[in-house]
Design goal:
The complex is a heterotetramer.
Chain A: E1 4-6, H1 11-20, E2 24-27, H2 33-38, E3 46-49, E4 59-61, E5 65-68, H3 74-79, H4 81-86, H5 88-95, H6 100-105, H7 108-113, H8 121-127, E6 131-136, E7 139-144, E8 149-151, E9 154-155, E10 162-169, E11 175-182, E12 193-202, E13 205-214, E14 221-222, H9 224-230, H10 237-250, H11 261-283
Parallel strand pairs in A: 1-3, 2-3
Antiparallel strand pairs in A: 4-5, 5-10, 6-7, 6-10, 8-9, 11-12, 12-13, 13-14
Chain B: E1 2-14, E2 24-30, E3 36-40, H1 49-61, E4 68-72, H2 89-116, E5 123-126, E6 129-132, E7 135-141, H3 142-151, E8 157-162, E9 182-194, E10 200-210, H4 217-236, E11 242-243, E12 246-247, E13 265-271, H5 293-305, H6 316-327
Parallel strand pairs in B: 3-4, 10-13
Antiparallel strand pairs in B: 1-9, 2-3, 2-8, 5-6, 6-7, 9-10, 11-12
Helix pairs in contact in B: 1-2, 2-3, 4-5
Chain C: H1 16-21, E1 36-42, E2 48-54, H2 56-60, E3 64-68, E4 95-96, E5 102-108, H3 111-119, E6 122-127, H4 134-137, E7 151-159, H5 162-167, E8 171-178, E9 191-197, E10 200-205, H6 210-221, E11 228-232, H7 248-258, E12 262-265, H8 268-274, E13 281-289, E14 295-307, H9 313-323, E15 332-341, H10 355-373, H11 377-384, H12 404-419
Parallel strand pairs in C: 1-12, 10-11, 14-15
Antiparallel strand pairs in C: 1-5, 2-4, 2-6, 3-5, 7-15, 8-13, 9-10, 9-12, 13-14
Helix pairs in contact in C: 6-7, 9-10, 10-11
Chain lengths: 290, 328, 423, 157
């Protein structure tokens, strides 16, 4: 490890630093980058510590969404009353990350920035139709979270850009969501496969639905075809079973050190089915009952 | 769907090295103030041998546990006690310490007998005193007796060594007496199998272990509980993956051991069938603790879902495949 | 016998206060004036002959105090618990048998410098064909790790006549079993510090057997046993994995060469990648009994992959053979256990020592038999369990302290209290 | 190298040190400040042996750059006992047989402390979750969970 260290104290300072810097990595919680530097997987010339930029922190609500600072830790998300009420599926996912120690410093922005295909919070954010706000010195834009992942460990963010806000759609009445994870043990486990589901029902009909997976592709994915098929269907067991089968057919997972493609395919169906069932049950409860 | 099952498994385990001499030795010195130093080569690696040996010395010398200090595992100071392996230290070093203590107290007993004007045979050591067995009001304090010993120019030292009674195994047919004594155990596991994902959750383990005599029951329980968890790992998740001689699981993120959240409720049960050649009847428990666990879990999985896995560990991948096969 | 006062009590551990205070000193916690840090250069190939090791560039790196190779070992250059087949450092012209075999050791002022020095050592190896499966390794045409062949040891136990006895069985079950290679995963990795005091080398190290370590240190440094002092530091778990020498001889050699204290601490990756493992077993079981469930014949074949070096391999397989039948009395037994070399990581002692593997198999066999007979798993065990007076497969008579029926009863009762009648 | 001056509180004592930016918190604590109760078991945030409490939350000190603790409050195992008197958690770990090799113990105790500070009456399940970032290979966790339960009762007295 050998790098120059920058710790800007404000957003303005941060954007100025980034404007002039090349070959840098961000330091948020550090749970990923510090280990990668130690193992010499990456050797950045510069480290930009985001922790003193207050604008990147905090969780607040607006009428139809939550604003979550990318520096919010998994623990903050897990324990936030706002998240527990309006984005509980994200709280559930955050609670499944690593260990208490990792959740205490690991951040949701870091989870996105690492672009790990197995990140736990990302599928939850995807089904909540999250938009990320990206800034650079003279530019600000918003993108759907789905559109920023390029491949394992890679995003479409360019040098000079930083994620400054997550806009996470609130769960409203008639809507429900669920997060399901398979790991190799009950804690300190990277997902073998994970899945988040969100849906809106009107009486017995599925009005809208979103399904996202982690660890089945080079990036976290949405199952747009399955979602399309589900729209307008009856919210009932047979439909969920069919959707589960379609989900299984739609994904093309691979073998790796944690599991096999075959196993991921098989359990994907089970996860989607479980996710839809739980989400439906919650949609029929009142908001905030979680 | 989640299905539960119960499985049972037994084990036996010979204490000490197999068919080989494996002696241990110890020194003891009883100091002027009645405190004791035990010198032993026995390496305590967390299992608690230092404490166990101190208890054996204290019991034999009739002193309090606080009076005993154990100096261990320093080849510049302590005598050879062999390896901390084969669940052998309580039995073998325990005997060595007991014998050393016995030797150290002979001078004391001889002196006390003269002081109390009784037979040596009528004396026992307890509560820092040398007491007449059948007349407990009649005693001399160890410290006083030591004063007398010193006045007579006598030191109170002891050395003991013990080698278990074994014979080599015949190279042709393996006949012989490989161990002086064996530990026995039975474990019952209750598991819950998720038939959709192949995940196994171990809910409970009942672990009954014949340790001869538990010198320190809470430490024996600790050995049993810790052993069970190594057994759970062996049964369900642990696997060093090797590809052409290269380890693909070189860290604790890829080589997984159970966390606190993976632990079942463990019910340690101590069974004491005394071993006459053991110190106060003790045998050993370190390794036996884990031996039947995986077998009990595998048998419980069969009880739950009718699938028998013959290749450890029982990963969800493997089990789910077999469950599906069984269904078709 | 008078009542016991201390034995049988839940006495608090003698060393526990330091451990909860954080003041217990583990080997990695030791710091000495002038202390250097040691690192090991290891083979990246599983099988080969070392052609060249050039350390001159590494020696020139500022802060490096010593770079040692096989030529710098005054003694035997051998280690190993049961068989001395393990080189302390593999030298030029000598054979590498696994990935991770040590080729050179460095002492430097910081760990970073020591690591940088490793990168400057030039090594050339002529690769040899390697073998990774014990079944392949047993074949005649397999690449040989040792001149005498890859079968390191065979242990046979024969009691009665199994071939004949199987003819008289009413029920027979045959099944193969395999188990994985397992890591000890003690939370403390291997660590040690060596320092010369006069002509004595002191080694503070986490270990399960200091007196054994003493021999390896003395014989490799070519000094008297009374000149090698091994002091066990508070040891963060062992489970059999800290019986073999790891850093011991290396730090001693470096301390002697540099005349400064030298410390080595393995990283987790170095620890998992290079230290011994639980033997993976391949087992063939054939078990037969009469219609009442009484065991008559038992046959077991075990193949244990001991990897590149023997470590506790033959001991493990011998113990596995002796315990292969489980705690049951059987008149006819035949067990064969093979310890086989491969170019895999070496396997050695791990808690249970070959018995957890065979227990998995023999307890599966017992359930298979019970199922075929239509009796309960408990019943078949009760019928065959060792009792005082039983004769084991090695022909020894169990005289006393045979508490197996008691453990079965106790476990059953405890389980029934919580789970209800399951037996 | 461009050393940075940092100020922080360690076990209620103020420290001002100059650190190179690549130095890890665990190395600062162990090597520079000589507090070796904090252990290194994996260096990758998987075992929890290096756990310290930072501003009330546990962190793996092997993953924290020392330079980032400027202005923060750190507690290590050395900060728990008051002189000769053990912290109730240390006492209960001793009494319940929750310590075997002792290498995971400092991290376990600190995770337990952070848990009890936030949740004075945890259930066994909550304790297990609270300790799920600390690996122990010796005890099977059972006696550790009991020790935390016992300390929680003691602290609530």
């Amino acid at each position: 490890m050998n790098f120059e260290y920058y710790n800007p104290k404000s957003m303005e300072e941060l954007l100025n630093v980034l404007d002039n810097l090349r070959n840098y990595y961000f330091l948020a919680g550090g749970t990923d980058i510090v280990v990668k530097m130690k193992d010499k997987i990456v050797s950045p010339q510069n480290i930009v510590d985001l922790n003193d930029v207050q604008e990147l922190k905090g969780i607040s609500s607006e009428e139809d969404h939550l604003n979550i600072g990318p520096l919010a830790t998994h623990t903050e998300i897990e324990e936030s009353d706002l998240v527990k009420k309006y984005a509980y599926v994200l709280a559930e996912a955050a609670a499944q990350v690593g260990s208490p120690q990792i959740r205490n410093i690991g951040t949701v922005g870091g989870n996105i920035g690492n672009a790990s295909p197995a990140a736990d919070t990302v599928p939850a954010l995807l089904v909540l139709d999250t938009t990320v706000q990206i800034e650079s010195k003279n530019h600000k834009e918003e993108k759907n979270l789905l559109d920023i992942f390029k491949g394992p460990g890679k995003t479409f963010l360019t040098e000079g850009q930083v994620i400054t806000k997550l806009k996470v759609r609130s769960i409203k009445e008639g809507e429900g969501a669920a997060f399901v994870k398979m790991g190799k043990r009950k804690a300190l486990a990277i997902s073998v496969i994970n899945c988040a589901v969100w849906l809106r029902v009107d009486k017995d009909e599925i009005v809208e639905v979103r399904i996202a997976f982690g660890s089945v592709a080079p990036t976290p994915i949405r199952l747009l075809e399955v979602e399309k098929w589900l729209k307008g269907q009856k919210a009932e067991d047979d439909v969920f079973k069919q959707a589960a089968q379609m989900a299984q057919d739609a994904i093309k997972p691979i073998d790796d050190i944690r599991s096999t493609a075959e196993y991921r395919s098989t359990t994907a169906a089970s996860l989607v089915y479980q996710g839809l069932k739980t989400a439906l049950q919650r949609a029929r409860e009142e908001v905030g009952n979680e | 769907m989640k299905k539960r099952g119960v499985g049972l498994a037994n084990m036996w385990y010979g204490i000490g090295n197999t068919g080989l001499p494996n002696p241990a030795s110890a020194y003891i010195e009883l100091l002027d103030d009645g405190t004791v130093i035990v010198l032993t080569g026995c390496a305590d690696i967390g299992q608690g041998s230092t404490t166990t040996l101190a208890q054996i010395a204290a019991e034999e010398m009739g002193v309090d546990i606080e009076d005993v200090r154990v100096v261990s595992a320093d080849t510049g100071i302590t005598p050879d006690a062999g390896a901390t392996s084969a669940s052998r230290q309580t039995y073998i070093s325990g005997n060595a310490v007991k014998m050393a203590a016995k030797e150290a107290k002979t001078i004391l007993v001889e002196t006390a007998a003269r002081m109390l004007e009784v037979d040596e045979d009528s004396l026992i050591l307890e509560d820092r005193k040398i007491v007449v067995k059948n007349d407990k009001d009649k005693f001399v304090k160890i410290k006083e007796c030591l004063g007398k010993c010193r006045a007579e120019g006598k030191l109170t030292l002891g050395h003991g060594w013990f080698n278990p009674d074994v014979t080599a195994l015949n190279p042709e047919d393996g006949q012989g007496k490989p161990y002086a004594t064996y530990a026995f155990a039975t474990q019952v596991a209750e598991v819950e199998v998720n038939t959709e994902t192949g995940e196994v959750k171990v809910l409970k383990i009942f672990a009954a272990h014949d340790v001869g005599k538990a010198i320190n029951p809470i430490n024996v329980e600790g050995q049993i509980e810790g052993g069970c968890m190594i057994g759970v790992g062996f049964a369900l998740m642990e696997q060093v993956k090797v590809d052409k001689g290269n380890i693909k699981t070189p860290n604790l993120a890829t080589y997984l051991i159970p966390t606190a959240m993976d632990t079942p409720e463990i019910y340690p049960i101590i069974v004491e069938d005394p071993e006459v050649t053991g110190p106060f009847g003790a045998k050993g428990v370190g390794e036996p603790a884990l031996i039947p666990t995986a077998a009990a879990i595998v048998n419980a999985i069969y009880d739950a879902v009718g699938v028998r896995i013959t290749d450890l560990p029982v990963t969800p991948e493997k089990l789910l495949k077999e469950i599906k096969k069984e269904r078709n | 016998m008078s009542q016991l006062k201390v034995v049988g009590q839940n006495v608090k551990k003698k060393d526990v206060k330091e451990k909860v205070l954080g003041t217990a000193i583990f080997a990695a916690d030791i710091k000495m004036d002038g202390m250097l840090y040691g690192k090991t250069l290891r083979s990246k190939v599983p099988h080969g002959i070392v052609k060249k090791i050039n350390v001159s560039q590494a020696l020139e790196l500022p802060g490096v105090h010593a770079v040692l190779t096989e030529q710098d070992i005054p003694g035997v250059n051998k280690a190993g618990i049961i068989v001395k087949d393990e080189p302390v450092l593999v030298g030029i012209g000598q054979r590498i048998r696994k990935i991770g075999d040590p080729l050179a050791i460095v002492a430097a002022e910081t760990e970073e410098i020591a690591e940088a020095a490793l990168d400057l050592i030039e090594v050339e190896v002529e690769e040899l064909p390697a073998v990774f499966s014990p079944l392949d390794a047993m074949k005649d045409d397999a690449p040989k790790l040792y001149e005498k062949g890859n079968i390191m040891a065979v242990r046979r136990i024969v009691k009665g006549d199994v071939a004949e006895a199987f003819k008289n069985c009413d029920v027979i079950v045959e099944q193969d079993y395999t188990t994985s290679m397992v890591e000890h995963a003690y939370i403390e990795t291997e660590a040690g510090v060596a320092k010369m005091e006069g002509d004595v080398v002191n080694v503070w190290v986490c270990t399960q057997n200091p007196h054994y370590d003493r021999k390896d240190v003395a014989y490799n440094l070519n000094i008297g046993l009374n000149q090698a002092r091994i002091i066990q530091t508070t040891t963060g778990g062992g489970f059999g994995g800290k019986l073999d020498v790891t850093v011991h001889v290396h730090v001693a050699l470096l301390a002697k060469a540099t005349k400064r204290p030298v410390k080595m601490v393995y990283s987790r990756r170095e620890s998992i990648s290079n230290t011994v493992k639980r033997h993976p077993f391949i087992m063939k079981y054939k078990t037969g009994c009469d219609k009442d469930g009484k065991l008559i014949a038992w046959q077991t074949e075990i193949i244990g992959d001991t990897g590149a070096y023997a470590s506790y391999g033959p001991g493990t397989l011998t113990r596995a053979a002796v315990h292969a039948t489980g705690p049951y009395e059987i008149p006819n037994v035949k067990v064969e256990a093979y310890t086989v070399y491969t170019n895999n990581p070496q396997a050695g002692a791990m808690r249970g020592f070959g018995v957890p593997q065979v227990a998995f198999a023999h307890e599966s066999q017992m359930n298979l038999l019970a199922e075929k007979l239509g009796i309960s798993p408990l019943e078949i065990r009760m019928k065959n369990a060792f009792i005082p007076g039983s004769i084991t497969a090695t022909g020894s008579k169990l005289e006393h302290s045979v508490g197996l029926k008691s453990t079965m009863e106790s476990a059953k009762q405890a389980a029934e209290k919580v789970l209800g009648d399951k037996f | 190298m461009n050393k940075k001056l940092i100020k922080f509180t360690l076990n209620d004592k103020e420290y001002k040190v100059e650190v190179e930016p690549q130095v890890l918190l665990v190395d600062l604590i162990r090597e520079e400040l000589g507090l070796t109760g904090t252990k290194v078991g994996c260096g990758e945030g998987e075992c929890g042996a290096c756990t310290v409490i930072m501003d009330g939350k546990t962190v793996n000190s092997c993953m924290v750059l020392a330079v980032t603790v400027d202005g923060k409050k750190i507690t290590t195992i050395e900060g728990l006992a008051k002189g000769e008197e053990l912290h109730p958690l240390q006492k209960s770990f001793v009494e319940e047989g929750a310590v075997q090799c002792g290498f995971c113990t400092p991290g376990m105790i600190l995770s337990s402390k952070a848990l009890l500070d936030e949740n004075p009456n945890p259930t066994p399940e909550e304790i297990k979750k609270g300790l799920s970032g600390n690996l122990c290979r010796c005890t099977g966790y059972a006696k550790i969970v009991k020790a935390v339960e016992k300390a929680s009762k003691e602290l609530n007295k």
